[in-house]
Amino acid sequence: MAFSTVVTSGPSLYLLPKKSQNFRFPIRCHSSPSLSVSGQSNLTQFDLKTYWTTLYAEINQKLEEAIPMKYPERIYEAMRHSVLAKGTKRAPPVVCVAAYELFGGNRLAAFPTACALEMVHAASLIHDDLPCMDDDSIRRGQPSNHTIYGADMAILAGAALFPLGFRHIVTHTPTDHVPEARVLRVIAEIARTVGSSGMAAGQFLDLKGCGPNSIDFIQEKKFGVMSECSAVCGGLLAGAEDDEIERLRRYGRAVGVLYEVVDDVLEAKTLMMEKEGTEKNQTKGKKYVSMYGVEKAMEVVEELRTRAKNELDGFDKYGDRVAPLYSFIDYAVDRGFNVGDLS
C-alpha cells in the first residue's frame, strides 16, 4: 500500500485536505468546546490511516524480531501464530506510541513497551478463546490458537508471552531516553492490568454471570483496561505529570469500552438485517446490547465518546500532537477504514 506522504519514525502529523465524510454510525458528538476552530480543523483533518499504517509496519517488524523461533519450536510457533497473525489491529501499541509522542518523545523509545503490550494482549486473547473460557474457535477471521495447537499448548503460549513482554521492556528500553524509574512504573501498570484487579476480574465476572449490575465493571475490565493501560504506559514512559496520567487513564478506558460497544451494536444490527440472530448469538457474553438493547447501547456510545473527548481538553497545550488520540475516538465509532486490511 503506497502513500504520497513521506513518513518517518519521528512524531510527525499527517494532514489531509478538508473534505466531507460519510459516517457509518448514527451517533455524532461535537468536539470539546474548549478547542479553537483552527484546532478542531487540524484534528478532524488528521490522517489516522497513514499514521496507523506506518506504525503498523514498524511494530510488526519489531515483533518479528522479538519472538524468533527457538527450542522448543512448538511453543514459539503457537506464540507467533497469535502475535503475528494477519488481521491484528495493533491498537494497544499504536495508542501507547501516540500517548508517548503527545509529550514530544521519539517513538523508538516507546517501541519495546508497545511490543510488550501487544504480547500481553495476544496472550489474554489466547486464554479468552479457550474452551473453558469464552470457547471461541475463530479469532480475527482465523482459527484460534487452541484450535490449531491444542488447549495445553495454547495455555503455555499465553503463559510464555506475559513474562516475555516484561523482559522485552527491561532489556530493550533505551535508558538514555527513559529512566529506570519510569520503566518500573510501566511494568507495574501492565501487571495491574492483567491481574486479579484487571482483566482477570472482568473475565471472572463474565464467566460467573453476575447479572446486569456488573455490566459496567465487566466492560471496563475486559475491554477498557487494555486501552487504558496502553495510554497510561505511553504517558509514563514520557514522564507525564500525575494529573496527565489520570487523564490518559480515563481517556483510554472510555475509548476501549467505546470500541467494544460499537462492535456489539454493529454486530446486532447486522444480525437483525440478516435475520440470523439466534438467541445464543444475541445473549452471549455480558454486553450492553444483550442486556439493554441497541437503543440503550447507542446512548452509551454517545456518553463514552463525549467523555473521551473531554479528557483530551487538558492536553490543549500540546497542540496538534493530541490529534492521533483524538482521532482514535472518532474511528472507534465511524470506522473510516478497516485496520485488518493493513496487515
Write up this protein.
- The structure is a single chain.
- With 343 residues, this protein is an all-alpha fold.
- 63% of the residues lie in helices and 1% in strands.
- It has a two-stranded antiparallel sheet.
- A hairpin with a 2-residue loop joins β1 (138-139) and β2 (142-143).
- The longest helix is centred in the C-terminal third of the chain and has 33 residues, at 242-274.
- The termini are close together.
- Mean pLDDT is 84; it is low at 1-39 and 277-283.
Write the layout of secondary structure elements.
Layout: H1 37-44, H2 48-66, H3 73-83, H4 91-102, H5 111-128, E1 138-139, E2 142-143, H6 145-149, H7 151-172, H8 180-194, H9 199-208, H10 215-238, H11 242-274, H12 279-283, H13 288-292, H14 294-311, H15 323-334
Antiparallel strand pairs: 1-2
How much helix, percentage-wise, in residues?
55-70%
Number of strands: 2
Biggest sheet architecture: 2 strands, antiparallel
For the biggest β-sheet, the strand order reads 1-2
- Structural class call reads mainly alpha
The whole-angstrom Rg is: 19 Å
Percent strand: under 5%
Number of helices: 15
Q: Unreliable stretches, pLDDT < 50, 5 or more residues?
A: 1-39, 277-283
Distance between the termini: 10 Å
Question: Could you report the average pLDDT, rounded to the nearest whole number?
Answer: 84
Order of helices and strands: HHHHHEEHHHHHHHHHH
Morphology call:
globular
